[in-house]
């Protein structure tokens, strides 16, 4: 199926020269003069080689049809990250480069969107927001205003995040999994 280059998003799969690539990052550039372009960082599915392509935003790109559905994360071992289809109970193992930065968030029993092509996992999408607990952070400085300053904090899953000064160790917070940013204090 052909789509325009500017509509490509992270996790999409495109076909070029008979090979499949998963989109890692897509950015549209609109210069003052000249043609707007789309720059796409991709990983070739067959061997994991990363590449960057640049297209005019209106150029047609072949988007591959992949199976995207909800899977349950089971566990990870030396062979990879294992997922189960909750309807058919089929299991697949994804390699560490398919999982990438999402590995820190994975917990047994968690539901994720897994994209597969001919039965092989090619991309993973986490829930947009998740609740995590703060394991370490700096103490509050008296007189510091909450409006503009954030402080670094480490979560129990090993992800660094910037939080407002009133957040202490042991506090549960909601973070955006796409860019590891603080959203709000978790409602208990």
UniProtKB/TrEMBL annotation:
Location relative to the cell: Cytoplasm
Translation elongation factor P/YeiP central domain location: 68-122
Gene from which this protein is expressed: efp
Keyword match Isomerase: no
Lineage, broadest ranks: Bacteria, Pseudomonadati, Pseudomonadota, Alphaproteobacteria, Rhodobacterales
Organism: Seohaeicola nanhaiensis
InterPro entries recorded: Elong-fact-P_C (IPR015365), NA-bd_OB-fold (IPR012340), Rib_uL2_dom2 (IPR014722), Transl_elong_fac_P/YeiP (IPR020599), Transl_elong_KOW-like (IPR013185), Transl_elong_P/YeiP_cen (IPR001059), Transl_elong_P/YeiP_CS (IPR013852), Transl_elongation_fac_P (IPR011768)
Alphabetical list of Pfam families matching this protein: EFP (PF01132), EFP_N (PF08207), Elong-fact-P_C (PF09285)
Keywords (A to Z) from UniProt: Cytoplasm, Elongation factor, Protein biosynthesis
One annotated GO molecular function: translation elongation factor activity
Similarity comment: family membership: Belongs to the elongation factor P family.
Positions of the Elongation factor P C-terminal domain: 130-185
Function: Involved in peptide bond synthesis. Stimulates efficient translation and peptide-bond synthesis on native or reconstituted 70S ribosomes in vitro. Probably functions indirectly by altering the affinity of the ribosome for aminoacyl-tRNA, thus increasing their reactivity as acceptors for peptidyl transferase.
Name of the molecule in the record: Elongation factor P
């Amino acid at each position: 199926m052909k789509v325009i280059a500017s509509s490509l998003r992270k996790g999409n799969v495109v076909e070029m020269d008979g090979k499949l690539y998963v989109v890692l990052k897509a950015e549209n550039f609109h210069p003052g003069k000249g043609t707007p372009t789309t720059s796409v960082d991709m990983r070739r599915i067959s061997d994991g080689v990363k590449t960057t392509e640049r297209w005019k935003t209106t150029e047609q790109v072949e988007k591959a049809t992949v199976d995207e559905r909800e899977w349950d994360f089971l566990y990870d071992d030396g062979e990879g990250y294992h997922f189960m289809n909750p309807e058919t109970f089929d299991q697949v193992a994804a390699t560490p480069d398919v999982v990438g930065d999402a590995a820190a968030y994975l917990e047994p029993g968690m539901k994720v969107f897994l994209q597969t092509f001919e039965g092989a996992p090619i991309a993973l999408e986490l829930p947009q927001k998740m609740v995590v607990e703060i394991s370490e952070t700096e103490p509050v400085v008296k007189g510091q205003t909450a409006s503009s300053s954030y402080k670094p904090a480490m979560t129990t899953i090993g992800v660094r995040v910037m939080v407002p000064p009133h957040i202490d160790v042991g506090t549960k917070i909601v973070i955006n999994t796409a860019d590891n940013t603080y959203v709000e204090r978790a409602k208990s």
